[in-house]
Amino acid sequence: MQEHRYSFVIDATPEEIWRVMHQRPPGRPTGDGEVGEFGRIVRKIEHGPVTIEILHEGDEHGAGLVRHCFFRVPKYLLSGGVAQSWEHVTDVVPYESAKYYAIGKPLWSRAEGEHRFEPLPDGRTRVHFVERYHVFNPFMRRILERRVHRFISKDNDKLVRQGIERALAAARRPTVAE
């Protein structure tokens, strides 16, 4: 099993970060999206090489959220350089932490990740992430697990931080009615 940990500081409170990461955008009904391969897409998030299709929003805090994700993997996996995962958000403690469990392919695997928010005295927040990755097939695990996980994880630190910062900036923009 592989593990990747990182943390960074964001100029926002845990509550602000939580809202952009876990709560349904206000005024957005569920079930109004396009139909994808695995059902109705409630909303879609695209950030660089990552696409996240939200299939079920979960409760008001995001517990139970189900998403279908697409992300880059090495081309030698013969999937055109794109992998998919099906993820379920659980173990939610609003404004503090959440976990997800995932099944991925083309290198059939499972992943589990969690993020935790640490409030800092100056109003900022340290965001901690950890992800564990495990390839099911013992032979493929031995020859590819470490290399593939390193490839997947190499940009995660930057992409997650940028995604949060971009969502915060959008949430802070004044609306037309203001």
What does this structure look like?
The protein has a single domain, classed as Alpha-D-Glucose-1,6-Bisphosphate, Chain A, domain 4 (2-Layer Sandwich), CATH 3.30.530. 24% of the residues lie in helices and 42% in strands. The chain contains 3 helices and 10 strands. An 8-stranded antiparallel beta sheet has the order 1-10-9-8-7-6-5-4. It has a two-stranded antiparallel sheet with strand order 2-3. The protein starts with a strand and ends in a 6-residue tail after the last helix. The model has no long low-confidence stretch (mean pLDDT 88).
Number of strands: 10
Which band does the percent of strand residues land in?
A: 35-45%
The CATH superfamily bears the name START domain
Radius of gyration: 17 Å
> The CATH topology, please?
Alpha-D-Glucose-1,6-Bisphosphate, Chain A, domain 4
N- to C-terminal separation? Answer: 50 Å
By helix and strand content, what is the structural category? alpha+beta
Overall tally of domains: 1
- State the strand order across the main sheet: 1-10-9-8-7-6-5-4
Number of helices: 3
Tell me the overall shape: globular
- Largest sheet report: 8 strands, antiparallel
